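Throughout this review, each integer encodes one residue's backbone shape. One record appears below.

===
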Amino acid sequence: MTVTTYKWTIKRYHQAIEAGIFDDQSIELLRGDLIVMPPEREPHAYYNTEAADYLRTLLGERVKIRDAKPITLPNDSEPAPDIAIVKPLGEVYLEHHPYPENIFWVIEFSKATLSKDLGNKKDIYAEAGIVEYWVVNLKTPQLKVFRDLKNGEYKTELTLTTGTISPLAFPDVSVQVERLISKM
């Protein structure tokens, strides 16, 4: 017996959302598949909030920090990264979620979903052209940085536990790694 799964397009996914089909569920669309998102536990919420506030302080009006809001990608994906650092386009986002060309980088805070965030999600972001992707590993406090996008793959992977890092889009900004991975 062959099992065939239904693949969602962005258009049909948005129609289902408009119809209220997913009102009581936390889901995201990855490569046409609906993925149920696990409930957010306290450490995840804490680190996500603290990091978003820290980045707002560092980057100010140069960006818009979006916490757990969808981004629309061309590979039938509409994930909701923990933090998306995007261009401050104002009312444009009334018409659509940020597209890859609007995104400076995304960050995921990960414990229960670590393998998905370092595997499938990393590949989806790279294929879509997200130039930089950070994963904060909450199991063994460290920051994984993926960058240097080439042919839909990240060519550089850094693992940091101390020091600072400058996002590719903002080489004048130094992000303290400890502010992302440690209790602040």
In short: The two ends are 53 Å apart (CA to CA). The chain has a mean pLDDT of 94.
